[in-house]
């Protein structure tokens, strides 16, 4: 099921603009793409069922370090991440900008910034929710953050009170930040358009291990890996009934820009029939995997090896050789039991 659509592909949403006024606004998809209008969605009458809605985000992380004696490494670095993919990076060993600091320091300090936006959309492109942010941290603690709904800076620590008052009075700073946040959605759309054709189905693996502290139980795990895009749902079923997971990981990135996820259920040690791993991608059943299938393959492999070994023994027996198999001495014409005690 998809989001309800108004005539002319317009979407009705309750939104708050950057000056903090609540408006009931008709948002056209074309206007959003062209950057004619940017609003921060507070509440929406759009509904996407199941997990058909998708979140898209663009983040930039900046880190600046003081450089005490004996410290090696970059003093400034920046990383751009879109849809959990690193799209840009920068580091600079030089520290010419440090000349403007009021006084030198002998200890290591860190200044961090996270700026970007997150957009949640239905499959038809309608916007459900927009979250824009600009946050600063100092020495591992939150320092100050920008509230895009009120266009005001909020102090996260009493130490940031002076900075908050100064920045809230800087009109140019707010205008620049407003422009950056407005363009953020356009940049996400540009990136999504460039990777829209990329799609890879998950590869599934199922395996079991002995449950800790209970030898009568096993942990049955399903691993899905190598899929893109990130949006996916995975369940383990028994006779078509979805089981409550014992543990489940979040979707995690692989080193080849695909993703992986795993989920586990607790089963009885002797139960091996009827379990199935099912994966939904983009709202449809992408693939499934039977746990019993791996067991049958293992049995078939063992059986094939056993048959091959027997054939080899028969071949040697035909050549007149005696072979010892489980306490039985065999020749081509007869076999006699041996006393192995």
From TrEMBL:
<keyword id="KW-1133">Transmembrane helix</keyword>
<dbReference type="Pfam" id="PF07654">
    <property type="entry name" value="C1-set"/>
</dbReference>
<dbReference type="InterPro" id="IPR011161">
    <property type="entry name" value="MHC_I-like_Ag-recog"/>
</dbReference>
<feature type="domain" description="Immunoglobulin C1-set">
    <location>
        <begin position="217"/>
        <end position="287"/>
    </location>
</feature>
<dbReference type="InterPro" id="IPR037055">
    <property type="entry name" value="MHC_I-like_Ag-recog_sf"/>
</dbReference>
<keyword id="KW-0325">Glycoprotein</keyword>
<dbReference type="InterPro" id="IPR011162">
    <property type="entry name" value="MHC_I/II-like_Ag-recog"/>
</dbReference>
<keyword id="KW-0812">Transmembrane</keyword>
<dbReference type="InterPro" id="IPR050208">
    <property type="entry name" value="MHC_class-I_related"/>
</dbReference>
<dbReference type="GO" id="GO:0005615">
    <property type="term" value="C:extracellular space"/>
</dbReference>
<keyword id="KW-0472">Membrane</keyword>
<protein>
    <recommendedName>
        <fullName>Immunoglobulin C1-set domain-containing protein</fullName>
    </recommendedName>
</protein>
<dbReference type="GO" id="GO:0006955">
    <property type="term" value="P:immune response"/>
</dbReference>
<dbReference type="InterPro" id="IPR036179">
    <property type="entry name" value="Ig-like_dom_sf"/>
</dbReference>
<dbReference type="Pfam" id="PF00129">
    <property type="entry name" value="MHC_I"/>
</dbReference>
<feature type="transmembrane region" description="Helical">
    <location>
        <begin position="291"/>
        <end position="315"/>
    </location>
</feature>
<dbReference type="InterPro" id="IPR003597">
    <property type="entry name" value="Ig_C1-set"/>
</dbReference>
<dbReference type="InterPro" id="IPR013783">
    <property type="entry name" value="Ig-like_fold"/>
</dbReference>
<dbReference type="GO" id="GO:0009897">
    <property type="term" value="C:external side of plasma membrane"/>
</dbReference>
């Amino acid at each position: 099921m998809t989001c309800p659509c108004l005539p002319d592909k317009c979407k009705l949403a309750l939104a708050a603009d950057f000056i903090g006024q609540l408006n009931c606004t008709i948002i056209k998809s074309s206007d959003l793409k062209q950057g004619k209008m940017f609003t921060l969605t507070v509440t929406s009458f759009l509904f996407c069922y199941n997990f058909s809605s998708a979140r898209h985000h663009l983040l930039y992380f900046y880190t600046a370090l003081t450089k005490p004696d004996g410290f090696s490494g970059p003093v400034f670095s920046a990383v751009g991440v879109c849809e959990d993919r690193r799209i840009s990076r920068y580091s600079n060993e030089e520290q010419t900008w440090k000349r403007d600091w009021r006084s030198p320091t002998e200890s290591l300090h860190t200044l961090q910034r996270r700026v970007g936006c997150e957009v949640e959309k239905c499959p038809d492109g309608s916007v459900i929710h927009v979250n824009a942010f600009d946050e600063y941290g100092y020495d591992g603690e939150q320092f100050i953050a920008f509230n895009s709904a009120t266009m005001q800076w909020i102090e996260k620590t009493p130490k940031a009170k002076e900075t908050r008052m100064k920045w809230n009075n800087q009109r140019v700073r707010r205008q620049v930040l407003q422009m950056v946040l407005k363009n953020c959605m356009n940049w996400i759309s540009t990136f999504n358009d460039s990777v829209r054709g990329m799609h890879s189905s998950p590869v599934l693996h199922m395996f079991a291990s002995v449950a800790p502290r209970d030898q009568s139980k096993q942990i049955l795990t399903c691993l899905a890996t190598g899929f893109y895009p990130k949006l996916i749902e995975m369940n383990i079923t028994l006779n078509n009934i979805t089981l409550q997971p014992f543990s489940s990981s979040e979707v995690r990135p692989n080193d080849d820009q695909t993703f992986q996820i795993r989920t586990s259920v607790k089963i009885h040690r002797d139960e091996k029939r009827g379990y199935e791993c099912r994966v939904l991608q983009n709202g449809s059943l992408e693939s499934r995997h039977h746990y019993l299938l791996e067991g049958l393959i293992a049995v078939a492999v063992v059986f094939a090896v056993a048959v091959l070994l027997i054939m080899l023994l028969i071949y040697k027996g035909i050549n007149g050789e005696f072979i010892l198999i489980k306490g039985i001495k065999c020749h081509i014409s007869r076999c006699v039991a041996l006393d192995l005690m």
